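User: Run a structure prediction on this.
Assistant: Running it now.
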Amino acid sequence: MPLKLFRSFLDFLTPRTCCACGRRLSVDEEVFCTACMLQLPFTDFLSHPYDNEMAQTFWGKIRHFEKAYALMYHEPHADSAHVVYQIKYFDKPDTGVDIGTLMGKAMKDSDFLNDIDALLPVPLAKTRERERGFNQSEMIALGIRDATGLPILDDVVKRTTFNGSQTHKDRISRAENVEHAFNLVKGDKLKGKHVLIIDDVVTTGATICSLAKQLETIEGIRISVAAIGFAGERIYSNHTEEEPDSINLEE
């Protein structure tokens, strides 16, 4: 049976839907429908990874920082945000893998990954991971690994605390909330390495800065960042994010 026909048969049994708008995907569409591919706020960060809005978030905050990439701009309640909501709040870890694969292919096609040695998903606290059933950053990293072959190091740093969601916190509160949230466990694995930290959304960068503070003690470490979404304080401060129970995906 030809591959296209086989996919049509699978789609009939278990229809695939667009990660952003929820419409049914055609046989030729992957992850996003054609309409969303044209309308979603994809960034151009891969064309200038060392100097873009997300990279600037970490300037002067992370020693040995190199570059940053986000697939799209994240705006609460917009279709771009629904992608992240599906993964984190609606029990769709496979969506994280699919998006990660898309990101991995894009980074592989550029020069972004040429000097990256390993992927480091932002750890979740054990209690939080048990509640959710998975770590969304690890799902994204799995997709990137599938597309690039880069190894995932998920035992180098552990999350020691979870003091509640960052959702409603301002810049100062976010930083304080994660100030001592991570503990370096097996730093020798990253000695002299260039690590790519994987997260779902970067807003103030507080979580990644806290994680990077642990990594900076490793000799020869270099740090870069990749995420599905970049909100940035300018975008985020103009909108109020809500907890998942109050999100209406039909809006």
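Residues 1-13, 164-176, 243-251 have pLDDT under 50 and may be disordered.
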